[in-house]
Design goal:
mainly alpha, two-stranded antiparallel ribbon, SANT/Myb, three-stranded mixed beta sheet, nucleus, transcription, Arc Repressor Mutant, subunit A, repeat, 184 residues, 7 helices, transcription cis-regulatory region binding, single chain
Length: 184
């Protein structure tokens, strides 16, 4: 299923990594530590990969302690909450997720979570409810004052957030939302 292995004009290997290459990279890093990634292909005997390829292979697949496999519902909820605050800054999100790589989180977001939010009536980029009606009125209470937009009346009881995203995230955190879909 993966890409076929081939060599570029400089003799560097491209494509899938073999188990033998993984062992060479692990052995080199265990002996010498993580140093200048560009120098690894020259110093690691028999490893004909570019430095970037070595770095990405180590960080995303071979590094000890990486958690691979299915995401738990708690991890998914945490990703959604962090994405609402940080956006597509996957490395920043990964810092808050124990032993998950930024690449793994990004792939899970794009393949699963974005679709899950859309199915539940939430815009995955703004984290606002998707409304198919022409107009909606939402009242937001900010520090004792309120503002209203035009359309049918819908009350929001969040005290400090002008976005529905923050309200939804607070409700999710409190466990008071049974469904992510907002009533019409």
């Amino acid at each position: 299923m993966g890409r076929k292995t081939w060599f570029d004009d400089d003799g560097m290997k491209k494509g899938e990594w073999t188990a033998e290459e993984d062992e060479k990279l692990i052995a080199y890093i265990n002996e010498h530590g993580m140093c200048d990634w560009r120098s690894i292909p020259k110093r690691a005997v028999g490893l004909r990969r570019c430095g970037k390829s070595c770095r990405l292979r180590w960080l995303n697949y071979l590094r000890p302690g990486i958690k691979r496999g299915k995401f738990t519902p708690q991890e998914e909820e945490k990703i959604i909450k962090l994405h609402a605050v940080l956006g597509n800054r996957w490395a920043s999100i990964a810092k808050h997720m124990e032993n998950r790589t930024d690449n793994d989180i990004k792939n899970h977001w794009n393949s699963c979570l974005k679709k899950k939010l859309s199915r539940n009536g939430i815009d995955p980029m703004t984290h606002e409810p998707i409304n198919n009606n022409l107009t909606v009125t939402t009242t937001y209470v900010e520090c004792g004052s309120s503002s209203t937009t035009t359309g049918p009346t819908t009350e929001s009881h969040c005290s400090s957030a002008p976005s529905g995203s923050a309200c939804l995230l607070n409700k999710l955190a409190a466990g008071s939302v049974k469904s992510l879909r907002r009533p019409c």
